[in-house]
Design brief:
The structure is a homodimer. Chain A is globular and about 65 Å long. The first copy, chain A, has a 6-stranded parallel sheet, sandwiched between helices. In chain A, helix 2 links the parallel strand 2 and strand 3. The first copy, chain A, has 11 helices and 9 strands. By secondary structure, chain A is α/β, with parallel strands linked by helices. In chain A, helix 4 runs parallel beside helix 5 and helix 7 packs across helix 10. The first copy, chain A, is about 50% helix and about 10% strand. The interface between A and B is large, with 89 and 91 residues.
Chain lengths: ~290, ~290
């Protein structure tokens, strides 16, 4: 099957942008990919054959593109959106992979008035690690891929959107249409909250540290190691997410603190059993055998 | 190398007891293992060759044992300890695998006055799953194995203890001597707190559930799935742990709730960066590359 897009510009060739490039390479070897990132990253991407060409700036990267894929931090994305809107070819689809959607989509609504079309997106496919070295064509496999539509009548019927949907499916992901408000609420609960819960847990453990015996961390078994996987995530990425989803995340953290306090006050009552049963049910949904 | 113990009684042949039996089988095929558990579990253990013999009660199981290995829930262990103390052969070593140690060791101190020797233990090798079907000889491999000594002069020099230490190392675990107070403090932070944090996180996610779209859980990616691994744990086991470590666990939960509230109040300040940096450091200690 030929790619629905012949020339693709990828702005930000880190974990997500690099993985998207590798997935394109795998399924559509004929696609021409131009990358834009910091110079050493671009060089590595070129040397590894991830991109065909490195561009010195966003404007050059997108000049000929049928598809512009923005996989940059949220704040950088917002800084570049006006320029991308004015400089992208009129026939192009511009989409992003930012972890929060309200601010980016609101800005895009203002900027994309004619010519290129903007489609907000968010592949639910991160890792606690980052960078091109962690990129893989398989990262999207089995992942939900959120696409944003504010139209209650349904997603846009533009052929570029249909083409991108087809591409998303080809790289193994499952498209999910949501409005930006719903996306930011849901990801606050299921992605941003777990991230900060893992940071908080790690901080409590670290603060208890006994220099002599390296307790309690020295007794860590597999369970807590899994709970601390997200504690390896980088602040540089999460700062933007926290700031751009402050209301939802704040409410979610408040609920978590209250739930923990409720468990604390009920360690020897049946409330603890109720909490385990609810958690077991969710575990069974998320980890089917 | 011959086993330092020829006849072993395993009380409770679930995940830990069954795994201990399988590890013995692997390294010391000549050892005779008598199991005690509910009848269907014993039958399965016998059919799988995990035990040589099933006993109808603890008294029969331990009658001839050189080593008595208690891998029962904490409350059952405490119910049985007086009987085990009075009925175990005088030359035997009795050890347990309970997840909290103060209550069990205090009771053992009263009960084991002559004859059999008691050694409190806790292999840091659980899983969120349980039962004999999950048992594996490899579960102890690389795990810390806490042994309890209250003597500031050092661990006991009894040859039975030396023999058990050697056995623990043979099955791949690393013995760590702690007093019961220190053990219960450290495990509250690094095992019991992560367990309840995972339960609380799952409860918050489950309570937000939108019936129609199954959001937010339907967007769950790998990160949150890892954070929710412990949410599959069984209340039946954790009830005893929570109740027998109430003071330490309550304090740990309080700290976690406070830390989460601190993050909530500082989502757009440099305090968030500090929290990430501390967490990243712990992550790097627990997950060396």
């Amino acid at each position: 099957m030929p790619s629905p897009f012949q020339r693709v510009a990828i702005l930000g060739t880190g974990l997500i942008g690099g993985s998207f490039a590798l997935a394109l390479r795998k399924h559509f070897p004929e696609v021409h990919i131009t990358g834009f990132d910091r110079e050493p990253v671009l060089r590595e991407a070129f040397d590894r054959g991830v991109i065909n060409l490195g561009a010195p700036d966003a404007e050059h990267a997108i000049a000929q593109a049928d598809l512009v894929y923005i996989a940059l931090p949220i704040s950088t994305t917002m800084d570049l959106l006006p320029e991308i809107a004015s400089k992208a070819p009129g026939h192009a689809l511009v989409t992003d992979a930012g972890s929060t959607k309200r601010k980016i989509c609101r800005l895009a609504e203002e900027d994309f008035n004619f010519g290129a079309m903007f489609l907000g997106g968010h592949p639910m496919a991160g890792k606690e690690t980052h960078g091109l070295s962690e990129a893989s064509a398989e990262i999207f496999s089995g992942a939900k891929y959120v696409l944003i539509s504010e139209d209650p009548a349904g997603p846009p019927t533009d052929p570029r959107v249909a083409a991108f949907l087809s591409l998303v499916r080809t790289i193994g992901a499952e498209p999910v249409w949501l409005d930006a408000e719903t996306h930011d609420w849901a990801t606050a609960i299921v992605s941003h909250l777990p991230q900060l819960a893992s940071i908080a847990l790690a901080d409590v453990i670290a603060e208890e540290e006994d220099d002599e015996l390296r307790l309690p961390a020295s007794l860590a078994a597999n369970g807590v190691r899994d709970s601390l996987r997200l504690a390896g995530s980088s602040y540089d990425m999460w700062r933007d997410i926290a700031i751009s989803n402050l209301d939802n995340l704040s409410r979610a953290l408040d609920r978590l603190a209250q739930t923990i306090e409720h468990l604390r006050a009920n360690l020897n009552s049946r409330e603890l059993e109720k909490a385990f049963k609810t958690a077991n049910r969710l575990y069974n949904v998320l980890r089917p055998e």
